[in-house]
Amino acid sequence: MDFKKIHIMHIIYRFDTGGLENGVVNLINRLDPQKYQHTIVTLKGYSEIFCQRIHTDNVQFFDLAKKDGNDVSIFFKLRKLIKKSKPDILHTRNTATIETQLVGWWCRVPYRIHGEHGWDVNDMHGQNKKYQMLRRFMKMFIRKYVALSTEAFDYLKNTIGVRSTDIKHICNGVDVNKFMPQNPPYQLLPEHFAVADMLVFGTVGRLAEVKNQPFLLEAFIALTERYPAQKTKLRLIVVGDGVLMEKMNKRAHQAGLASQIWFAGNRSDVAQLMNLMDVFVLPSLAEGISNTILEAMATGLPVIATEVGGNPELIAPELKPTHLVEVNNIDALTASLGQYVNSPDLKQKNSQIVRNHCVKNFSIDTMVKKYNELYQALSG
Q: Which residue of 16, 46, 238, 373 has the fewest C-beta atoms within 10 A of its own C-beta?
């Protein structure tokens, strides 16, 4: 029987390395291509290399080439594109794209969805009054919301005034067959980085203020000072690039630890690099539902994270007392890292706990199933 595919237009600020963007890749790759057609529209461009992570042939890319500051021309460009492509669903994500829902309403796109994935450094925990006003105004143009975390759900309901029946809680999922414990690929490490019996802490993410990697760097420096006998065995891998790279590199050299800290930059082999780590750390100022935490747990890495956003929802219950730390509390993070210096066997024990917890609760199939149900219910 002949049937029309559901055409979803995804509006994204920039389609490049990032947790939100990786979630879109996973979703598109797993939704049935016989039932869906996708258009990805960016405000500020896309990475050709990152786009290659999408393996289906039912996706088109368009860039609105937004200028810095207020650029109303993007609304007219988007209107023209919508009129031409006639999407069934307009799906925006986070504050940077929410205003484009006006164009969707203007063009009478039948179904309009907005997702809240996490907080920006200018809107920690949704406290920015300007953005609150924007969200309250925009809710009349949005039919359904997706909240990735309980924090986001409560914020939309209690602060923005969205009816709970209009919010669907969909947690991110991870491919537990791609991210899984494997033999460490030591050949990927820089020369002279690896030593016998080393303990490797690691993190993955944009080097941006909201991700707060300098907090981890300072805690790692403090760790080497607290355990002088084990200092030469301690290592830190920082995967990602961004505005903080130069500052962090300089600090590593100042501390005399440049040979023990590897700034790996942006990588396409994160699944392999995670198998070089013993413990994963997410030091963010704010988070939604972190894809990198899920990927680390699927890899069997114990995760130490700041107690913000959706992070507490992800950590295994029995590890929360020792693996959730206060933001920018150097002593707390250093102590949490130190438990693995004090008890080397702890890594193997906790590795099994986090892997089982992840497989049981955060399957990517569950995430895709919920999005599929949402899209089908709206267009059915």
A: 373
Fold of 6-173+363-379: Rossmann fold (3.40.50)
Do the beta carbons of residue 176 and residue 339 sit within 8 Å? no
Same fold for the domain at 6-173+363-379 and the one at 186-361?
yes
Please answer whether residues 195 and 233 qualify as being in contact, where contact means their C-beta atoms are separated by less than 8 angstroms: yes
Q: How far apart are CA 43 and CA 13, in angstroms?
A: 5
* In the chain, domain spans: 6-173+363-379, 186-361
Does this model's pTM top 0.70? yes
| Integer Cα distance of 341 and 225 in angstroms | 12
Fold of 186-361: Rossmann fold (3.40.50)
Angle at 10 between CA 179 and CA 285, to 5 degrees: 55
One-letter identity of residue 302: P
User: Whole-angstrom Cα distance, residue 64 to residue 136?
Assistant: 25
> pLDDT, tens digit, for every residue of 24-83?
999 999 999 999 999 999 999 999 999 999 999 999 999 999 999 999 999 999 999 999
